[in-house]
């Protein structure tokens, strides 16, 4: 394991960019919302 993969508190694990992680979480949430909307649209078309 390289030193760039270790945290400054004794090498417990990789350092994560919190802003980058939040961006990924937001992308997942947006994709989930689009999936729900697509399913709802198809269900309405099916029953219409």
UniProtKB/TrEMBL annotation:
Task: Quote the protein name from its UniProt record.
Answer: DUF1016 domain-containing protein
